């Protein structure tokens, strides 16, 4: 099942399968299911999708700092480990790819692999891949585009002050 919501970073397609969020997609939406994740039919009243939409609205209104949703991103063991570490980067905080590598027990040499896992995160915002920055503090690539990354980081920074 899926639905589409409006947000400050443009329309978002929320995808649910088996009672868990499996993807959040930025517009423009792809025609085929990303990474083979089933979408099913549109259901704007599905409870999991409604919960996700409500929590995202609260996040964008600066009222929610931690998401509490059933998630099933469906990646490799390494990807799941990286995505778990991303969820521990707090609201309004950032971490580098090297720091994420160290947090999962790897050396800085794994920074590139962390970056690839970060880039393949199917549930952006909720799994906060936008909070990962370059070693020199620069904004680096973001699947949703650097403008969206900047908006998300700015939203969190503004909410802290």
Could you explain the architecture of this structure?
- It is a single chain.
- The chain has 161 residues and is of the alpha+beta class.
- The protein has 2 domains: 2-60, Double Stranded RNA Binding Domain, CATH 3.30.160; 77-160, Arc Repressor Mutant, subunit A.
- 35% of the residues lie in helices and 13% in strands.
- It is built from 5 helices and 5 strands; from the N terminus they run βββααβααβα.
- It has a 3-stranded antiparallel sheet with strand order 1-2-3, with helices on one face.
- A hairpin with a 6-residue loop joins β1 and β2 (12-17).
- α3 packs across α4.
- The longest helix is centred in the C-terminal third of the chain and has 15 residues, at 146-160.
- The radius of gyration is 15 Å and the shape is globular.
- The mean pLDDT is 91.
Oligomeric nature of the chains: single chain
Question: Overall pLDDT, averaged?
Answer: 91
Number of helices: 5
Over all CA atoms, what is the radius of gyration? 15 Å
């Amino acid at each position: 099942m899926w639905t589409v919501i409006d947000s400050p970073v443009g329309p978002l397609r929320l995808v649910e399968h088996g009672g868990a969020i499996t993807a959040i997609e930025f517009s423009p939406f792809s025609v085929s299911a990303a990474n083979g994740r089933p979408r099913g039919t549109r259901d704007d009243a599905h409870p999991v999708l409604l919960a996700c939409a409500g929590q995202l609205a609260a996040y964008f209104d600066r009222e929610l700092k931690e998401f509490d949703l059933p998630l099933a991103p469906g990646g490799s063991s390494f990807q799941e480990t990286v995505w778990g570490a991303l969820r521990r980067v707090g609201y309004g905080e950032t971490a580098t790819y090297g720091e994420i590598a160290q947090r999962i027990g790897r050396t800085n040499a794994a920074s590139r692999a962390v970056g690839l896992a970060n880039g393949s995160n199917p549930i952006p915002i909720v799994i906060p891949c936008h909070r990962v920055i370059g070693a020199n503090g620069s904004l680096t690539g973001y699947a949703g585009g650097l403008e969206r990354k900047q908006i998300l980081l700015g939203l969190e920074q503004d909410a802290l002050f």
